[in-house]
Amino acid sequence: MTHISRFPYLKVLLYLFLTIYGLITLIPFLWALSASFKPLSEIISGEPNFIPQNFTIDNYKQIFFQEPLFGRWLFNSIAIALSVTVLNLLLNSMAGYALARLRFVGKRFWFFLILAVLAVPAQITLIPTFLILKALGWLNSYQGMIVPSMVNATFIFMMRQFFVNFPQELEEAGQLDGLNTWEIFRDIVLPLAKPALAAQAVFVFMGSWNNFILPLVILFDPEMFTLPLGLNTFKGQYISYWNYIMAASMVFTLPALGIYAFFNRYFIQSVTFTGGKG
User: Fold this and answer.
1) Secondary structure of residue 44 in the 3-state scheme
2) 97 within a domain of the structure (yes/no)
3) Among 57, 68, 127, 184, which residue's beta carbon has the most beta carbons within 10 A?
C-alpha cells in the first residue's frame, strides 16, 4: 500500500497541485488563442483580458488569403515533418533491432559510438552540416532538410532497449516457420512494437515540426521556408504583427496536438520500455 493510499489528504493535495500546475501551463496557450481573435491595437494596448473586446477573424483571413506564402510554408512543414518521421521510424527501428539481435563485426563499437553521439549537442553539428550540404548542392532544398534528420541516435538507443526485452520465443517461432531475418522484423517484431514506435513518432514529429535552427541555417528562399521560419517574417524592425503571429501559431499548433492525440494511447503504454537488460 502506498503512502498516498494510506493518507487520502495527500491524494487531494497531489491533485490540487497538478490542477494548479496544469492551469499555469494552460494560461499562455489560452492567451495566445484569445489574441489570435484580437486586432493588433487591442493586443499592444497591454490590457490582460482573455475575452477579446473586438472579436475578429480577420487575422486568419489575412494569413490564409492575403499572405501568398503561408500555404506553401504549411505544406513545407507537413512534407518535411512527415518524411523525417517515417524515415526515423524505419531506420531507427532497423538499427535498434540490429544492435539488439544481430551479430556482426564492430557491433559494440557502433553501439558505443551511438552513445557518444548522445553527448554531442545538436548546435555543434550545425556548421559541419551546412558545409556538407553546401558541397552536395543541397542548400535550400527538401533533401537538405530531410536527410540530416532522418536518423537519430537517441531513438536508435531507445529502440535497441525495446528490442533487447522483446520475447525471443516469437522470433524463434518465426524461424521455425521459415521466415528470414527481414520477414521476422517486418511481420512479427514491428507490429508488436507499436508503443515504442508511437512514442518515437510523437517526439520525432514534434522535433521536426518545431525545428527553427536548421531551416534558418540552410534555407534562404522564402518559398522554401517552414512555418517556424515563416512566422518570423511577421516580425519587423519597427513593428511586429502579433495578431498574425498568434493566428499563425494556432494553426501551427493544431498538427502537433493532432498527432499527440492520435498516438496518445500507445504513448502512455510506452513509458516502461526504455528499461531492461543491456
Assistant:
1) helix
2) yes
3) 184
Number of domains in the chain: 1
User: Coil, helix or strand for 179?
Assistant: coil
Three cell numbers at 141? 532544398
Q: Which residues contact 99 (CB under 8 A, 6 or more apart)?
A: 107, 110, 111, 114, 156, 160, 163
Q: What is the distance between the alpha carbons of residues 67 and 4, in angstroms, rounded to a whole number?
A: 54
Grid coordinates in use for 187? 511481420
Residue 277 has phi, psi (to 5 degrees) of -75, 160
Q: How far is CA 136 from CA 9, 76, 139, 147, in A?
A: 63, 21, 8, 12
Dig out the grid coordinates for 205 from the structure. Answer: 514529429
Q: Return the DSSP state at 191.
A: G
Q: Is 58 inside any structural domain? A: no
pLDDT mean for each 10 residues of the chain (278 residues): 63 89 89 90 80 90 90 94 96 95 90 91 90 95 95 94 89 89 91 89 92 93 92 75 89 84 68 45
The amino acid at 132? I
Instruction: Determine the Cα–Cα distance for residues 221 and 141; give it in Å rounded to an integer.
Output: 9
88, part of any domain: yes
Give the range of the structural domain holding residue 104, as residue numbers without chain letter: 68-272
Cα 204 from Cα 92, distance rounded (Å): 11
Q: Give the long-range contacts of residues 247-251, CB within 8 A, separation 24 or more.
A: 247/36, 247/59, 247/60, 247/62, 247/63, 248/63, 248/70, 249/32, 249/36, 250/32, 250/33, 250/36, 251/60, 251/63, 251/74, 251/227
CATH of the domain at 109: 1.10.3720.10
Is 202 domain-assigned?
A: yes
Q: What is the pTM of this model?
A: 0.85
Q: What are 230's three cell numbers?
A: 515563416
Q: Where does residue 98 rank: exposed (0-12), middle (13-18), buried (19+ CB within 10 A)?
A: buried
Q: How far apart are CA 38 and CA 244, in angstroms?
A: 10
